[in-house]
């Protein structure tokens, strides 16, 4: 039996507000979130065995997170739940188009990071890769995977409120990307981190490092592009009625990993054999997973059965 995909990063509670009063109260709702945690849930819902290394407490928000993760079949690494630790939060305010902007109340220091034998992929990203002291632990861990038979994926998911300096943040992203086989960014990431550069220029810059074999850039309602050293694909997004975009990028990331695993491209292969046909298929699968999430409130990725039935 294949060991779980290992996801490393923050789990927190999203306090989502649409700014509209409801029953005399503001229109806020607390839901489980955190980009890496969302990716872990998305993977589990798509039938991929998944272990999450994170940290949250046993307060009410932590209990909510734990129930959500366990209820979706995500395994938690030892030390991820710590009594007395204050569970982190993110306040997400939605604009008229349902696009979320975030403010964070978070601290990050993961438990010990270890790689299980047979683990096909390690995924990390978002705040966990830039907020110390946890970010340093992730850098050291990824550096130890250079000669291991495991595929590393990265989603920087830039947060300007956490790291407002794009120059230093891009340097940190480049360092992590150099230890990753696949890097996924959004058009918003590109605009913040490399203003003035086109997506293809950014992809070429990241692919200049030997380890990195694929860069995928999402473009919201315009779909996504996937680039390798030997090919490029462009996938359009289907027309949908957007409720909000919370968790859409994370659904995309989890579906991307799941699609690659289904084609035997993870593990020791490290994406070797990822031709244009396979790349188009996995990016299309990921775009459609993100689209389903956008038709729902909050970070609510589809199951494999929902994905199939929705687009059949």
UniProtKB/TrEMBL annotation:
A molecular function annotated in GO for this UniProt entry is: kinase activity
- Which residue ranges does the record assign to the Carbohydrate kinase PfkB domain? 5-302
Q: Which PANTHER family match?
A: HEXOKINASE FAMILY MEMBER, PSEUDOURIDINE KINASE-RELATED
* Domain of life from the UniProt record: Bacteria
To which protein family does this belong? Belongs to the carbohydrate kinase PfkB family.
Spans through the membrane = none
Under InterPro entries, the record lists: Carboh/pur_kinase_PfkB_CS, PfkB_Carbo_kinase, PfkB_dom, Ribokinase-like
Q: What keywords would UniProt list here?
A: ATP-binding, Kinase, Nucleotide-binding, Transferase
Can you name this protein?
Carbohydrate kinase
């Amino acid at each position: 039996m294949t060991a779980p995909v290992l996801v490393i990063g923050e789990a927190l509670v999203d306090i989502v507000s649409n700014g509209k009063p409801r029953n005399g109260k503001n229109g806020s709702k607390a839901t489980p979130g955190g980009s890496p945690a969302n990716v872990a849930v998305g993977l589990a819902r798509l039938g991929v065995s998944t272990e999450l290394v994170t940290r949250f407490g046993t307060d009410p928000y932590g209990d909510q997170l734990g129930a959500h993760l366990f209820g979706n079949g995500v395994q938690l690494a030892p030390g991820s739940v710590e009594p007395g630790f204050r569970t982190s939060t993110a306040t997400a305010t939605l604009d008229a188009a349902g696009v979320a902007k975030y403010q964070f109340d978070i601290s990050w220091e993961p438990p010990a990071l270890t790689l299980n034998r047979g683990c096909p992929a390690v995924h990390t990203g978002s705040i966990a890769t830039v907020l110390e002291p946890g970010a340093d632990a992730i850098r050291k861990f990824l550096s130890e995977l250079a000669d291991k038979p495991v595929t590393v994926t990265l989603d920087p998911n830039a947060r300007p409120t956490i790291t407002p300096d794009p120059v230093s943040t891009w340097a940190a992203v480049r360092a992590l990307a150099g230890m990753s086989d696949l890097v996924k960014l959004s058009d918003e990431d590109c605009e913040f981190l490399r203003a003035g550069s086109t997506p293809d220029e950014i992809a070429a810059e990241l692919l200049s490092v030997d380890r990195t074999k694929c860069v995928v850039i999402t473009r919201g309602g315009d779909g996504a592009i996937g680039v390798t050293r030997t090919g490029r694909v462009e996938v359009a997004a289907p027309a949908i009625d957007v409720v909000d975009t919370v968790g859409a990028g994370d659904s995309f990331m989890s579906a991307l990993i799941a699609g690659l695993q289904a084609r035997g491209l993870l593990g020791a292969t490290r994406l070797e054999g990822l031709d244009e046909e396979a790349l188009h298929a996995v990016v299309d699968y990921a775009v459609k997973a993100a689209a389903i999430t956008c038709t729902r409130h909050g970070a609510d990725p589809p199951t494999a059965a929902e994905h199939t039935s929705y687009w059949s």
